[in-house]
Every structure is written in structure tokens, then in C-alpha cells.
């Protein structure tokens, strides 16, 4: 490419880019350089499992001519993300650690480092956008690429972060990002996307949880008609809607419908994993205000399509969410994120579904 041709900000200030050594954050650095920003990088060492990412980010920084600062976050990450993740699974819930990490660890530490370095902005390689509304508040928006949109993962970011956040990849498709990386000869250009939780690279959640001394609830499988189908392996092995890996021979396909407070796992036949109502708690909104009642579209997990819903606020601060068409497997512990017109209006944690 002769030039990337990106729009420029009116003020070309210092920006600190959160780097991982992957293609998205690396191309984010390049885009901001082309826009005229004075770019520095920061890579966060969340755990020993991230040492490879630290080395990759430093290599990319050397290639692109930007200094890369290493932020050690092991204590914060253990306290704010890993321990709640383990506790949630042990209680029969299905947490999303990225959603916990983003406001409490990742973006908070990036902002702190930016302040230390005198950087006005921070940036990451997430596929989402930030727009300043007429009231002066910054609001999170969906990416142009529906397939890559990551606004769901960022919904808990407060105004203090959103007002300083640049997300250059919000207008790009992944293929375009990889093409830019190839043009500037980045080693990560064709690296596969990571599909696992970053601190459990082998994907074995149960082994990770138990190795840390946590004791998930034991119990039994309860069939659709209340029959006892035998002992299960521990609630940390299951999530709502799961069909594979149950280890039972029932003679017909069964799904996890609910993980009960006593540790038993309720199973249902196909169709029984759908819900027409859920309760959402611990609500976060971009401006810190209450979400208004009304019609929205909601995603009940990161890879789900946004579907229509009706939201009604409750006296205890929770939201009652009803669906005109039942939704498959909203899982307690996962997040529900509400959209209208491409804007994120807020979200919270699914408390229950029925």
C-alpha cells in the first residue's frame, strides 16, 4: 500500500496502545502512526501464561518503532478475574472473564500508564467504535463488521475510559486488517485468532479450577421427567444449553436446562433449553444512568445474535427482560447487553432465566 488513507483526528496527541502481539493490536499501532499520533505501546502481563504475548508485543514494537512498556498485573488479575471466575463456576454459573477484566484490570491499568506517560488517549484492537453524542458523553457502538463486533465485551467500560478510548478497527473487516499486516510484513499477519480463555490456554477449565483448590458442587443429573440419571462430574463441567460431554446414555438428545442450587443438573429434551424471560442484575451503562424501560435488542452471549426484547426496571435495581420469541440458553453468570440503533445502552449479568 502506498498509504492507508485513514481519517485523522483534529489533535494529533500521544496515544498508548494496549498490545498483545496479535494482528489486531499490531495493526492498530500502524493505523495510529499513519494518522500522525505519537504512539507508545503497553503489554500487560496478566499471568505466566502471557509471557509469550509479552515477547510478541515487544517484537512488534521493535518492528514498528514504538516503545513497549510491560505492565505487571498478576495480583490485580488474580483478585479481580481469576478468583471470581473460579468461584462463579463452582456455584454453577458461567462467567465471562474478559468482561470482568476489561474495566477492573486491563483498561484501568492502561489508563494509569497513559497518565504516567502523558498520553491523552488509549487505544486497543477491539472491533467496536466510540462516538461522542450531543450531550457530550462518549458512547460505545457496534463495529461495521457484524461478524467481528466486540462491543459486547466492552459494555462495562465507564465514561472515564470511553472518553479517552480510540478503537481504530471499528470500521474494518478482519481480512482488511490482515492485508495491512502483510503489507508491512508483520509476523502475526496470518496467525490464527485465539479461541480459548487467555489464562487457560489448554481450555480445561475444570482442571484449572481444581488445581487452585476450589471445590465445585457435586450432584446428580435429573432427567426431563424428574428421573435420577446418575452422578455428574461437578458443576464446573457444565453450562446452560450444553449437549456434548454429559457422559450419559439417555437414548435421546438431552441438554443442560439448569444448574440447581443443590448441585444437581436439570436436563431437558431439545427445546427445553429455551427461555422467554430472564432477570439481569448489576447493571452498567455508559453514562452511569439507569436504563430506561422499553424495547431493545439484546445479546445473551458474545457469539449470539442480538434479538428483540422488552426491558422493565425493577425496584431492586434488576431488569426484567422478556422475549417475543424464546431465546436459546441464556446462562446465569453470562452478560446480557442491550442495543438500540447500533449503540450500547447498557448491560448486566444474567441472574436467572425461565
Number of helices: 7
Average pLDDT across residues?
92
Percent of residues in beta strands = 25-35%
Shape: globular
Q: Would you identify the regions where 5 or more consecutive residues have pLDDT less than 50?
A: 1-11
User: What pattern of helices and strands is seen along the backbone?
Assistant: EHEHEHHEEEHEHHEEEEEEEEEE
User: How does CATH name the architecture of the largest domain?
Assistant: 3-Layer(aba) Sandwich
Task: Give the class from helix and strand content and strand pairing.
Answer: alpha/beta
Give the strand order of the largest sheet, numbering strands 1, 2, ... along the chain.
12-15-14-13-16-17
Name of the CATH class of the largest domain: Alpha Beta
Span from first to last CA?
A: 53 Å
CATH superfamily caption of the largest domain? HUPs
State the share of residues found in helices, binned by percent. Answer: 10-25%
Number of DSSP E strands = 17
CATH topology of the largest domain: Rossmann fold
The radius of gyration over CA amounts to 22 Å
Domains counted in the coordinates: how many? Answer: 3
Main sheet overview: 6 strands, antiparallel, barrel
Properties at a glance:
354 residues, alpha/beta, Rossmann fold, SH3 type barrels, Elongation Factor Tu (Ef-tu), domain 3, 3 domains, 5-stranded parallel β-sheet, disordered N terminus
Explain this structure to me?
This protein has 354 residues and is α/β, with parallel strands linked by helices. It folds into 3 domains: 170 residues, Rossmann fold (3-Layer(aba) Sandwich); 53 residues, SH3 type barrels, CATH 2.30.30.280; 80 residues, Translation factors (Elongation Factor Tu (Ef-tu), domain 3, Beta Barrel). 24% of the residues lie in helices and 29% in strands. The protein has 7 helices and 17 strands. The protein has a 6-stranded antiparallel barrel. A 5-stranded parallel β-sheet has the order 3-2-1-4-7, with helices on both faces. A hairpin with a 5-residue loop joins β5 and β6. α1 packs across α6 and α3 runs antiparallel to α4. The N terminus is likely disordered.
Amino acid at each position: 500500500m502506498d498509504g492507508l488513507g485513514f481519517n485523522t483526528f483534529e489533535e494529533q496527541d500521544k496515544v498508548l496502545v494496549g498490545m498483545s502481539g496479535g494482528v489486531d493490536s499490531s495493526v492498530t499501532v500502524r493505523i495510529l502512526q499513519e494518522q500522525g499520533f505519537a504512539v507508545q505501546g503497553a503489554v500487560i502481563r496478566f499471568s505466566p501464561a502471557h509471557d509469550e504475548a509479552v515477547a510478541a508485543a515487544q517484537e512488534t514494537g521493535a518492528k514498528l518503532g514504538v516503545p513497549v512498556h510491560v505492565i505487571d498485573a498478576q495480583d490485580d488479575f488474580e483478585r479481580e478475574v481469576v478468583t471470581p471466575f473460579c468461584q462463579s463456576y463452582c456455584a454453577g454459573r458461567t462467567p465471562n472473564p474478559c468482561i470482568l477484566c476489561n474495566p477492573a484490570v486491563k483498561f484501568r491499568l492502561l489508563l494509569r500508564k497513559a497518565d504516567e506517560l502523558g498520553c491523552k488517549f488509549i487505544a486497543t484492537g477491539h472491533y467496536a467504535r466510540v462516538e461522542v453524542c450531543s450531550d457530550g458523553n462518549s458512547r460505545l457502538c457496534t463495529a461495521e463488521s457484524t461478524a467481528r463486533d466486540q462491543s459486547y465485551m466492552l459494555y462495562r467500560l465507564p465514561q472515564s475510559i470511553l472518553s479517552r478510548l480510540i478503537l481504530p478497527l471499528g470500521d474494518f473487516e478482519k481480512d482488511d486488517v490482515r492485508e495491512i499486516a502483510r503489507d508491512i510484513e508483520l509476523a502475526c499477519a496470518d496467525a490464527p485468532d485465539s479461541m480459548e480463555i487467555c489464562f487457560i490456554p489448554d481450555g480445561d477449565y475444570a482442571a484449572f479450577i481444581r488445581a487452585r483448590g476450589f471445590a465445585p458442587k457435586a450432584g446428580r443429573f435429573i432427567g426431563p421427567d424428574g428421573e435420577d440419571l446418575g452422578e455428574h462430574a461437578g458443576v464446573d463441567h457444565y453450562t446452560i444449553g450444553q449437549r456434548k460431554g454429559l457422559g450419559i446414555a439417555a437414548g435421546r438428545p438431552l441438554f443442560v436446562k439448569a444448574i440447581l442450587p443443590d448441585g444437581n443438573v436439570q436436563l431437558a429434551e431439545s427445546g427445553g433449553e429455551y427461555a422467554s424471560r430472564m432477570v439481569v442484575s448489576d447493571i452498567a451503562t455508559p453514562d452511569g444512568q439507569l436504563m430506561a424501560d422499553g424495547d431493545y435488542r439484546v445479546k445473551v452471549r458474545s457469539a449470539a445474535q442480538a434479538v428483540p426484547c422488552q426491558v422493565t426496571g425493577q425496584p431492586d435495581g434488576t431488569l426484567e427482560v422478556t422475549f417475543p420469541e424464546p431465546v436459546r440458553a441464556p446462562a446465569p453468570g453470562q452478560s446480557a447487553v442491550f442495543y438500540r440503533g447500533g449503540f450500547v445502552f447498557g448491560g448486566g449479568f444474567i441472574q436467572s432465566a425461565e
